[in-house]
Amino acid sequence: MPFSQRRIPCRILCRLLLWGCLALPAPLAAQDILSDTLHAALPASNALRVYLDCDRCDFNHIRSEITFVNYVRDPEQADVHVFITDQRTGSNGRQYQLSFLGRGDYASVEYTFEHTVGQNATNDEAREAVNSAIRLGLVPYVAQVQSISGFSLDYSRENQEGAGAQTHDEWRHWIFTAYAGGIELEKESNRTVFDARWGFYADHISEQWKIRLRPYFNYDLVKIKREDQPDVRSSLSRHGFDSYAIRSLGQHWSVGLFGDYITRNDRNLRHWGEVAPGVEYSVLPYEQATRRAITVVYRLGYSYVDYFEQTIFNETKETLLQQQLEASVAIRQPWGDIYGGIEGSHYFHDVTKRSAELFGYVSVRLLEGLSLRIQGDFEMVQDQLALPAGNASLEEILLQQRELATDFELSGSIALSYTFGSDFANIVNTRF
Description:
It is built from five helices and 19 strands. By secondary structure, the protein is mainly beta. β16 (336-347) and β17 (354-367) form a beta hairpin. α1 (8-22) runs antiparallel to α4 (123-145).
């Protein structure tokens, strides 16, 4: 039925409800929106067709809780394309940006709004908050389908008076995380493998500053018993410290100072430390970074290196000055993703010691049910200053205990997928 013949008062009422909710102070905390509910019991034949496009969403939960629409497997089959992206906030919460893109007869109805989930929200509270935001965003479209007599909308805000006020933060936007992940032990009669990863994050994120302090530790052990011969033992360690302090200079510029340290025996680095100031220019405003970004980064690094073994350049210790330039593009849109760039660097003491890398991937929906993803990386390598002198043994090569000389590194993949069959993706089955 043409929109002009539908019940105009119902449509206007639904839009007023949505606009009224969106006009409230934002962002809302997770608990503010938990009581938002929109219930309906539309017959499946009359239900709106929705395509969900989200990296961090619990699709099973959404389909189980929001049952007044039909979910389809491809955007070409949808009345509404719900496109959701997110980024971490300064309080270690997460800000979601929800775009509702009408298709076909609904092409004229399109809008975007944001919703923030606080750092103390549980996984269940976070997904319920996203569900509530999706319900609200679907209101104008559902109003075009039939009368809203089957719906009820409730809204509740706790601590409303102080919702928009600045709150005291005794931690001053610092978030601390300790981790001990990836600890694995494999034991056989003649073979033992042990891997361990642990470390610590200290992050500060505010409107003006982005700071990180991160010590980390990685240890890998392989031990193989052999009859009438010495055991084979490979011990790889990669310990270090990452840090940076980045200062915002507006919507397009930022400056930073980076400090790194690493000790790594498989790369002949007893001690490697670098201090590098840098500057970044964003062609587009930073606030658009979740959907599209074009950036250029320049860094100038001063490093000190102490090698385990003498290098092929007869060095055991040295100081180095290096510059690096990188340009990249990142686009995430309903039709697919594009990410790519180019990076180049060289040492000042010998400009022939340089490297250049081209990297990226493209993921595109070509047509209904058909998607293509191409990924590749190519690097020209002429700056392996840490290569130890002498030949590598077969044991060192097989156990990856030693870096090998190379002129280039190339990797790539291509994937094509085609989905066909039922248009609908409503059923939820979590068995096994």
